[in-house]
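Protein modeling request. Please complete all fields; requests missing the sequence field cannot be processed.
Requester role: graduate student
Desired output: 3D structure, token encoding
Chains: 1
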Amino acid sequence: MPADITILILTKNEEDNLPKALASVRAFAKRVVVVDSGSTDRTLEIARAAGAEVFEHPFRSHAEQINWALDSTSIDTTWTFRLDADEEVLPELTAWICSSLAGVALDVDGIEICRRMYFLGRWIRHGGMYPRHHVRLFRSGRGRCELALMDEHMVVPGRVLRAKGDIKDDNTRPLRWWIAKHNWYSDREAFELLEGEGASKRPGFVEPRLLGTHAQRMRWLKTQVYGRVPAAWRSRLYFLWRYYVQLGFLDGEEGRIYHFLQAHWYRFLCDAKVMEARKFPKVREELVREVYKSLG
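Delivered output (296 residues):
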């Protein structure tokens, strides 16, 4: 029997990844909602063929797209599950949802789910990448996505517990796509670094707290620890921390590439763009203009 749950998936040109996501929720989802932002491949065809309800809306940011979907797709199930198009719900989590979700206490508004991240076909288990828990399942009408341009989290007002079981994040697109995506991400990350404390005080932004929720703790580490290390050193130190102290080298050749690119190259690129923007006012104006343009 389906659980009283709606699956929410954002898409754009996800014909290679979407079938896995849809197949993984078929056994328990009462409703599947796909919100697309201009796909030109077979994404919409695949979604409709699988029985999903398809909505189309221009993309501004992940946070705004999620909140638009929560407000505009008439979700009336007890629970909503935010799932990315390149993710799959694994069997143990499916079993937990089917057997335990209906009995969750009424004061619980959110459920954290652990994510397994794959890169170049390998499960990245070290370097602080596993386990990582995120609120992905929440009572409909109780969850909102914080209004961050990057590293956005779902937040709920009530108690949060953890599910038993994982989701698998395994994007099948090539490395050149990953690099292009993170170059795009770096513009937004640089924008938020330039905004400084003003960004963290926007409405809907998670407050950094060491002893708070997972989202608050991660924001505290990013702003109060990583953010206080001099830019000339922090990306290098962060890579060394993840690769050696957190045993990222145990993830093999794929892990060596991933930890270097994600912990060092990407963070270095963000800091380099910030330095450039501070040095050249015209570059800063162009960066701010491009980010605001993407936000409509």
